[in-house]
Every structure is written in structure tokens, then in C-alpha cells.
Amino acid sequence: MSCEVHYNAASRTWFGPRGKDFYGPEMTLGEVIMRVLQINADQVMQHCDPTGEELTGAQLAQQSARIAQAFKRLGLYRGDVIGISANNTTYLTSVVIAALLRGIPINPLHPELAEETVKYMYDITEPKLIFCDVENYPTIQAVNQRLVTPATIYLLNGRLEGVRDVSELLNEDESITAAAYVPCPKLHGDHTAFIVCSSGTTGMPKGVTRSHRSLLCNCKNPNTYTRDSILLSFSPLYWISGTIILLASLLNGFRRIITNRPYSVDYLLQLVATHRVTFLFLASHQIALLSKHDSDFEKLKAQLESVRVLIGAGSKVCKAVFRRMYELIGNQRFIIGYGLSEMGGLSKNVGGPLGCEGKVMRNVELRVVDKLKMPLGINEVGIIYARLRYHWEGFYRNPEATARTLSPDVSEASVFGAPDLVDTNLTACAVVRTAKGALLLELKDASKETAQLLREDIGTVLGGKAEARALTQQTRLEMLDLDEMATSEDVRKAFSEQMGITLDVDAIKSLRPGFGGTQRAIICLPATLATKALSVGKVKVAWSVCRIR
Residues 238, 207: contact at Cβ < 8 Å? Predict the structure, then answer.
């Protein structure tokens, strides 16, 4: 297991620390949660501050089993969707666990979303049941009447005459025990657990699917949480942070403080003092309000003394707020995270420079690419691409947006040994399924001639049934400080004479003007040759000594 972040110059990829998964590919969120709840049967796992209601692990497990049985009675099957448009209240957690046990994806919406946005999302996900609060019931009812297939609505935090509520689902046969409940047998880790909303910055929100396996990886973290942790967040389930905070509590077995009251600094400090909160998650604007609070500095610092970790995310945190939070709780207790709804956390800043997004997180692989999707190097500005470690179903019922989001990189791979046809030794070979469903054979350290011969043999076997092509993995290099009169031929000659590398005619992709009357060359080489060129670092072309990076 690697504990350090490292950068591969040849592939221009950042790798986070390596670590093993805690569970196998068939394990699901509901199964793990029920085991954790039974282990922590007598421990208070949830405290609702406005009402004072508390639920132990045993109580949460029992409620969840009953609601899951009710879902079965109502005719909900694996793959059916339920909608949740509600704040954090007592019974929300049991509804979520029940859906996870039954293999029913959850589409959480913010309880204050406008009617048209709610209808837009529910037109896509077509929930069979919708859970909401008393306060936003009129909006949900108006939306439901306009849906092609109306859902059954249940209230989570109270009662209204003529409207169903969650207590009806809890009245299932009391003989059902959590220990005896059997989760959906056809469910596995790659199935969708949540359909969360994208930010909507590029238009109407999309339904981002998250699998059981990916969320288990995001949320099961015994190195961060302990059984005596006490967690507080104001995020509803609608935000991916709210989903992750809920699952982190259930998967790691510690107490979560919930509230449906709006955020204010005074209320936050009251909750921290009352419940001795140790783990605090706040959105960036909430952290800014905390940093500018007008109370006495030493008093405010003392009020946050119990907080071991404060994580902020959601948008950029300015340096002034960074500096103030370092002063309040220290640079090892204040953490800023950067992530995607599609994957979870990508990087985190623990005690790093002010304003920095931090280092790449565990099991994350990142590249920075330009507009042509060519990988860039260190200190270059571009678009962040992250490798999907687990199977992703894409945006729910939106294959076009999914195709635009994914790069033509691999989505699945398996490795075995295959004989090299030229060198007569064993070359590592990966058979990869690409995002478009094609099969790609990757040969490690094989020559171009080897790949071509293998292509010809495969083509002979396949005949006209499929197309076979020989591809070579390419790495993009930059050559800087070229004389303005230098030509592509000069570059090829320098590589050949000084490094023994023969550049194909199309290897030099471009010669562009640089700074101070110089030129900048873009060169694509097979990965092994690129590594060799990078190790040399410089080459003399005509009258200039040129840097390679």
C-alpha cells in the first residue's frame, strides 16, 4: 500500500495513495449498514436536535426492516425509484436504509426547489413513491398531479388530513426482526443506489447515478471516524455532501446530530456546545460566516474546542477565510475538499498553503488536459479529468450527456500473460473494455512491429466479423526554446543523433510561436520513448539547447 501522492511524468497523471477496498464487489450499502447497526445496537446513532428524539442502532435497524417489508408489500422492485424532497428529520434515515436494502435507487431533491425544477427531475426518474415534509407538501402535490404516472406521497415530519405518512409504513408486522431480514438477493455493488442532482451550472440538473460500491469506497473510512465521533452537518440529502455524511455515520458506527432548522453561526455554536461535536461539515458560505463572526476571538476559539475536524466544500474558500480558520482551530483540524458528485472527493488540503485545493485523495487518479484532451504537465492550466475506478451508469436516462462527459478511456480491464510474437518472451497484456464497448489489447513493452503482427493474426482469425487495429499508447511532450528558424526536420535529426529516437513524420504535431522569438513543439511518442526523452531532458536543435517536458 502506497501512502504518498506521486506524479508520473510519462503519462502526466497524478496518483493518490493506494489502498484496498474494505468490501468485495457484491457487497451493498444496505447489507453493511445493517451489520454496523446490529454491532452498535445499544449506541445512540442519531439525535434530532429540534425534537430531542434519539435512535439507537437497534431501533434504526428495526425501523428500516419494517419499511423495507412495506416497500415489498407495495410492489416496489429492484430498479424502481423513490423520490425524497425533505429536510433531515427522524424517520428519513430509516427510509433511506430500507430503499438501499430493496435495491431501490433514491432521487433526493432539495425541499425548497421550485415546482418546475422538481417536475423536471421527477419526469426523468419517475419515482413510485415520494417522501416530503409537511412544509413543502403543496409543491410536491402540485408536481405529482402533472406527472404522467403520479406517485404515492408520504409525509416524513408530521401529518395532514387525507395524506399518507411514514407511520403507516412502520406499522408492518412487528415479528419482522432486523437480524432475520434478507436484503434483495439479486443486488450487487455496481447497481445504482442514489440518483443525485448535478449542480445545474450548465443548464437544468442531470441525474448523477452513484453505485453502492462507489459510495462504500467514499464513506467507509475507519482512519477518519471512530465510534466516539459526533458528526454535525446542515446539508440535506439533496447535496452529495449530505448523502455522504449520512452514509459515513451509518457505515462507521458513530452518532450524527440532525436538524431541520436553518444555519446560523449562533445556532451552530449552540449545537457544538450542547452535543460536544467532534466532526463538523460546513458549506463554504457557512464557513465564511463563521470566520466573520463578531464574537470575542478567544471565546469563539474555546467554543470550537471539541471539534477535531472541520471539513469545508462546495465552492472556493478565499485566503482570508482560510487564514482566519487556521487561527481559530489550527491548520491540522481545518480541511478543504474538492470533489465531484459523480465520484466523491478528489483532493483535500490538510495544513497546506492558503487557497490551495490540496493533494490527491486515496485511490484517485487525475490528469489535467487541454481543449484537445491532450494531457498537460506540472503548473499548467487545463481541465481536470478523473479516472472512474468503479462502474458508472452515467447520467440517469441521459446517454447523450453521459457520452459527452466520458473521455474515450477504458472503463474495465483485466490482465494476463500473452506471448510476444517477435521477442519470444512473455509480455504483460491487458484486455480492456472501452467506454464504447470495444475490446482493446494492451501490450506492455512490446515493439510496434509486435503490435502490428498481432493485429494481422487477430484480423485473420476474425475475418470480416470485426475490425482489428494496431494502436500505440502515446505521450505528449513539449519542446521549448526552439530557434524561430528551426524546422520539423531539424527536430527529427536532433532526436535521432542525440537520443537514438526516430520520429515518424506525424510525431511532431505542431510548431507554434513561443516567447521572445522562440518556438514551441508538440511531440507525441510511445510511452517508453517518451520516458527516455524526458530522462535526457534537453536536446540541441540547430543553435539552441531546448528543454523537453
Answer: no
pLDDT (tens digit per residue) in 178-198? 766 777 788 999 999 999 998
Domains of the chain in start order, with CATH, are 408-462 (no CATH), 474-548 (3.30.70)
The reported pTM is: 0.76
What is the number of residues in the chain? 549
Q: What's the CA gap between 454 and 443, in Å, rounded?
A: 10
Helix (H) or strand (E) segment spanning residue 269: helix 265-275
CA distance 29 to 123: 26
Radius of gyration of the chain (CA): 28
Contacts with 25 (C-beta within 8 Å, 6 or more apart), sequence order: 188, 189, 190, 213
3-state DSSP assignment of residue 396: coil
Q: Cα-flanking dihedrals φ and ψ of residue 190, to 5°? A: -85, -10
What is the three-class DSSP state of 438? coil
What would the grid cell of residue 231 be?
A: 458528526
Chain-centroid distance of CA 428 in Å reads 30
Alpha-carbon span 73 to 199, nearest angstrom: 35
What the block records as the C-alpha cell of 275 is 452535543
